[in-house]
Specification:
two-stranded antiparallel ribbon, 41% helix, alpha+beta, two-stranded parallel ribbon, 6 helices, 6 strands
Length: 141
């Protein structure tokens, strides 16, 4: 499943400063610790997959803060008017996807990638820079 996820290497490479940081702080370290003959592009792709498809979670009750990759959840697309939401159980780190309303047969299951509390300008910028697409709902606003 992980190899089906988007890594957006081409788009991420356009930010040369961030690309160089990943090269120095991740790719070079992985090559030093694991194997010098690992292709840089493979490591960059894996970094992209983790960065773009993983989710953050926080539990104020337990003080647990983290980020994890859930490949099946990563296949769910964004909508500003999403019909589902997800939650992470910080006791066992499982996830659950719940409908926010009745979902019609054949309707795409969607989640909101960016919290509405951030407002339209910040959400537009975040969606564009992190997930490399323009949200048509936000464009209409």
């Amino acid at each position: 499943q992980i190899d089906q996820l988007m890594g957006h290497s081409e788009e991420r490479r356009r930010n040369t400063e961030a690309w160089k940081v990943v090269q120095h702080e991740v790719v070079d370290v992985v090559k030093e610790l694991v194997a010098d003959d690992i292709d840089d592009e493979i490591v960059h792709r894996l970094v992209g997959i983790l960065d773009i498809n993983s989710i953050s979670f926080t539990s104020a009750r337990d003080g647990v803060v983290g980020r994890a990759l859930y490949p099946l959840l990563a296949m769910v697309n964004h909508s500003c008017v999403a019909n589902c939401r997800y939650a992470v159980n910080t006791e066992d780190f499982s996830t659950v996807l719940r409908a926010k309303r009745k979902i019609e047969e054949g309707e795409e299951i969607t989640i909101n990638y960016s919290h509405p509390i951030y407002g339209v300008p910040r959400r537009k910028q975040q969606i564009s820079s992190k997930w490399f697409f323009s949200c048509t709902f936000l464009v209409a606003m």
